Amino acid sequence: MHNFNVFTGEPRKFDPTFKGPIYNRGCTDILCCILFILALLGYFAVGILAWSQGDPRKVIYPTDSKGQFCGQVVLWLNCEIGSYSDKPLLFYFNILKCASPLVLLEFQCPTTQICVERCPNKFMTLVKALLKEDDREYYKQFCKEGVDMTKVTPEILKDGLCPSILTPSKNFTRRCLPALETLKGGVVVVGNKTTFRDDYAEKNINATDFLEASKKSNVVVEARAVAMRIFEDYTQSWHWILLGLVIAMLVSLIFILLLRCLAGVMVWVMIIMVVIVIGYGIFHCYMQYASLKGQAGSDVTIKDLGLQTDFSVYLQIRQTWLAFMIILCIVEVVIILLLIFLRKRLLIAIALIKEASKAIGHVMSSLFYPLLTFALLSLVIAYWAITAVFLSTSSDPVYKVFNTTECMYSRDTCEPETFNSSNITAECPDAECLFAFYGGETLYHKYLILFQFYNVFLFFWCANFVTALGQVTLAGAFASYYWAFKKPEDIPAFPVFNSLGRALRYHTGSLAFGSLILAIVQIIRVLLEYLDQKLKGAQNKCAKFLLSCLKCCFWCLEKFIKFLNRNAYIMVAIYGKNFCTSAKDAFFLLMRNIVRVAVLDKVTDFLLFLGKLLIVGIVGICSFFFFTGKIKIVEDATPTLNYYWVPILTVVFGAYLIAHGFFSVYAMCVDTLFLCFCKCEAALFISRENMIRVIAAVVLDFIGC
């Protein structure tokens, strides 16, 4: 046998000792390895800096006008100086001021806000509260601390110590908002009243005014409200979600084991089951679509309905189920057409899967390697998320002047401690120094956006590195199987462990190099998405078109780099060369076999994707029937949820990740064997006739003839 140079066509001397991945190799891409280590040290430094400056409570708890967290202990120099632990709710002195456009600009209502133990449950004015002792005590809990209720009403209101009026309110995301209700006919009421009398201001307040103010104040907290409901659903269903993920893991493992023993049969069963599962989805959507016919409100369009936080509303209209049915029909037709046109190639793809099943059967430890990849990726994601939260909350409270009349100091920065003694209160009697937002003007705060950018970039780099490490490890293990002359005698005792050791010892720099290139492309895509969001309101069609073209080009570039990197890592695992040389060898080798790459390899990927789709479909349908309470046997065990789609989507997404983890081993095995076959064929190539004989012999061997 002669080794054949795929670029020059010059035959090399046959190496009878070559039995797979080369063991005598040296370190590759050392400079990139050093750069990666330095970048990681900088990443740790940014994390430590963020953790020392940030405070996640800023995104969890509401903040009063002094910048203190409701429901938390007040600390100064690590010493407790006060406690709001018994006052978890935020109360607005004048909720009507939240109807101001300022709320949309600065995300802060221009009114005094204090932490209270509970929301007011009845209507009361300050004028009437001062007449009775019981009312004074009740009213006092919604005033600033230390207020003297023996003062007359004008003095209390002038100093901004108490609100002029209390209205029945409810706790909404830890904020006291008016208890609004809409009666038949569209009449808005608060506590069964349509109007309120402010005795001090001597004017009536309509309930609709509270509705407008509540809507504006909800702009800031609406997303948090949905997040809280989703969090509640997770607390109610987390153990069932965990059980669903365990079932998905068992189904994936059983499927892989059956695929190893009955590859041909299982592939055909998989194809038929996918068609049946999608067909059932079409049938279910049609039945839901038909059952809503004639029901009140079911003919409303999604466009007319708009954005709703209660997503179950969308399932009550026919158009939603019609859209689901059309999407599933398109997917079904595409899959059937692909199966029809690729029916002759399916046999060869099944043969590749059979050979991959044999390889995995000899390297069973490869099935459990995705658990290590998953653990490392979880660590990377957790570090990135925690650092991002601490960076975003590492600002100082900023106070600004809020007023209702004309004032030259309006919206200027102020200090609450010295505000009352300043000349601002003399020139603007109604001005207040209130907490506005979190920010800062220190050197750290000026470069905060760069720290966030560095956090995102290192996240992409580390995540790509973990993925690359898994690919080169599995490639080295399966290459050991392919090049073993006597199986399983010539296969190393611990192929996965040996391959992982080689990758970390010799090729950390190469993995970092490939991951860096991919991370640069991904961060450019993020920047393009950011620019796209900024230019959405622009009318420049040329700029929009250019931006869309750039997004499309970089999307294609990312896909190409991922494909090239994957095959380059296989060459690194086998021959131990640096990244650029391995990428060049892999590229030209694939170009010489472009038809096979496009047909055989991709058809195999399609079949494996159908396997993942089948597992996700089975687990998704079961979780849908369980969480919607349609399984009578376990109906009592079904948790009560705000959004039943939350656990369903979580289980479906988790099931896909689990199935992808198992099937990624198969995909990497097929790609490695395919590339080894192409390399082996190049070594055996002498003439066109011999090449045809080699291909025929290998394919017949795969099929089992």
Automatic annotation (TrEMBL):
GO cellular component: a single term: plasma membrane
Catalytic function, reaction form: choline(out) + n H(+)(in) = choline(in) + n H(+)(out); ethanolamine(out) + n H(+)(in) = ethanolamine(in) + n H(+)(out)
Membrane topology: Multi-pass membrane protein
Residue intervals passing through the bilayer: 30-51, 238-258, 265-283, 321-342, 363-386, 458-485, 506-528, 606-629, 641-659
GO MF entries: antiporter activity
Signal peptide span: none
Domain of life according to the entry: Eukaryota
Entry keyword Phosphoprotein: yes
Keywords assigned: Antiport, Cell membrane, Glycoprotein, Membrane, Mitochondrion, Mitochondrion outer membrane, Phosphoprotein, Transmembrane, Transmembrane helix, Transport
Pfam assignment, any one: Choline_transpo
InterPro entries: Choline_transptr-like
Subcellular location: Cell membrane; Mitochondrion outer membrane
Function, in words: Choline transporter.
Similarity annotation: Belongs to the CTL (choline transporter-like) family.
The protein's name: Choline transporter-like protein
Biological source species: Cyprinus carpio
Lineage: Eukaryota, Metazoa, Chordata, Craniata, Vertebrata
